[in-house]
Structures are given as structure tokens and as C-alpha cells.
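Record type: monomer structure entry
Structure origin: computed from sequence
Chain ID: A
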Amino acid sequence: MRSRKTRGLLLAGAALVAAGAFVALAFHPPPGPRSLARFEPDRLADLELAMWQAYYRKEKLRVFRLLVVTLREQYRYSWARAAEAGLHLARAAAAFGEARGGYERVLPDLERAYTSHATGRRPASTRARWPVRSSSGGRRGATPREGAPRTSAPEVRRLLRESYRSLHAAVGASR
């Protein structure tokens, strides 16, 4: 009888420790400065390329996963915050990719993703300046087979890395 009680207490203690570890992992951001000026340009370029590839292949779960990783690694979000923002961004990307008009319907998800948890403020004036091409100027969400220019992944990776390195140098110089 006594061993059952001991075993139950040990099991309850282990469950409590596991729950505590989960909360610590899920809700605490990684260490280090939380600044948009501090990022790894090559890693960010690689993540962005992978997201674009997943987006055009309509791999919605992969887009979500890559967004969460990007928000966690590059912007130092906790896993929980990264998952919440990533969900809104992935949902907006999926809706945008399938839309042939009415693009403003993705704005609520974009606004929720970019709302600061610290300040509770929404991004400035997203409704007023939503850039959408008209049907005469090109289709948003077009797949490469439907007319988007074809560029090889290595070339896109090179260009993205070059761009993010340049941005990194520029924001680093302004610190």
C-alpha cells in the first residue's frame, strides 16, 4: 500500500516538473537582445527562401512551421508567442495565395500578428495603404507556372543573402 502512495507522489512530482519545464520553454523568450537590428542575415535569407518555396507549393503547415522558427530565432519570441503570430501570418498567406480579389480580408490576421504584446498597439495605417496589384497589373498569388518569373533557388538564395547582409550592415551601422 505504501509503495503505491510513494509511486503516486513520485508520478505527480514528475508531472509537475514536466509541466513547469513546458511552461518555461513555451512562454520564455530565448536569451539575448530583442532587436530587429540584430539578426543572422544568411539564416534569415534561407528561412525566407524556404517559406517562399513552401508558399508556392501550397504547403501551409510548412509555411507555419518556418514562420514560427523565424520568429523564435530571429526576433526572440517565446515559442507560444511565435506560434500565435505564426498562425496569423500563415493564415494570411494562405488566404492571400488563394484570393483573386478582396485581399483586404487578410488584414485582420496581419494586424493580430503584428500587434505588440508589450504595448497592445496595432500597426499604423495598414488599411489605408494595402498594396494590391490590379488584375491588369499582374495577379497576386500566381504560381510560377501561371506567369511569375522563374529563377533558380540558388540564385534567389544568393540574392536574398546579399540583400539581408546589406540590410544587416546598414542597421548595424546605425546602432
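Annotation 1: Residues 2-27 form the longest helix (26 residues).
Annotation 2: Residues 36-125+146-175 form one domain.
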